[in-house]
Amino acid sequence: MGQMILGSSTHVFLPQRLHPGLLDALANGGAKTIEVFAARYHFDYADRAQVKEIAGWFRSNPVTASLHQPLTTETTFSRHAAMSLDLIDREKMHRIEAMDEVKRALEAAEQIPFESCVLHLGMKGDKWSEATLEFALTAVDHVKAFASPLGVKLLLENLQNEVATPEHLVDILRIGHFDSVGVCLDTGHAHLSEGGIAGAFEVLKGRVVEVHLHDNNGMRDEHLWPASGSERSVAAAKGSIDWAETYRLLDTLPAATRGVLEIGYEGFETAEAVSRMTGEVLSHRTRLLEEAAAFDEGQG
Predict the structure, then answer these.
(1) Is residue 156 a contact partner of residue 119, using CB atoms and an 8 Å limit?
(2) Were both Cys, which of 75, 87, 217, 241 would link to 40 (CB 3.0–4.6 Å)?
(3) Can you point out the beta strands (E) in the chain?
(4) In sequence order, what are the residues at sequence separation of 6 or more whose Cβ sits closer than 8 angstroms to the Cβ of residue 120?
(5) Domain region containing 27
(6) Longest dimension (CA), the chain
(7) Are strands 5-9 and 153-157 parallel, antiparallel or unpaired?
(8) Residue 300 pLDDT more than 80?
(9) CATH code of residue 26
(10) Mean of pLDDT over the chain
(11) Number of structural domains the chain divides into
């Protein structure tokens, strides 16, 4: 069995202010790595007291930390708030605003030992063009120059647009000579794409540092808990990813690749429920891999 480091994103608690009790809930569920979702109403990277409090928790617990870039500058949570920060926006002013906000979030790495930061290139439905390629190269170069001295590795995530398809992410990394930049393979987004998870994996596997684990029905990005077949809980009843096959695939990635549950915040906002579900999903993965190994042995 592979050595994937399993954990969770604080995205599941997005409407709440992040505090040590919520991090405890994820760790108690078995998370060995936690991705902190940067949103001012959740983790306010500009609030010194909160940054210090979160840094203290990571220093006292055997859990590694990563960061997800902010997607909005809103300071109060709203279920209907649209993503407003776009690193490859057509307007230069908006691109600069997005880069500045990402850098503000990265400054928290001076205290919190973030190993990496996930970046989004573009909004849903954005088209691929010479201009978007140019904007992407500039954004990654600019943010990388800021992140590197802080010891933070940038990871580009596959999204539901033409710019951040697996093939175009590889193009961006190759053309920009971004040898130190990795990829965050998002299983939910890949499941919604033409090539599916297996196709995205094949293109990106040499660059994957982190994997976002979540399920959907193949129609829209729902961020459901991973589950399989008859073992699907009510929470994941609509998901259609084959997790036995997906885990087998991911298990071939290098040791220390991070597998992070990035779950929607609706319906599972109590710390206890999240802790319980995290534990169930992580043990379910172990069981599926053990069954696969036993099957392979029987075939041998």
Answers:
(1) yes
(2) 75
(3) 5-9, 33-37, 64-68, 114-119, 153-157, 182-186, 208-213, 258-261
(4) 69, 71, 83, 87, 157, 159, 164
(5) 5-299
(6) 61
(7) unpaired
(8) no
(9) 3.20.20.150
(10) 92
(11) 1
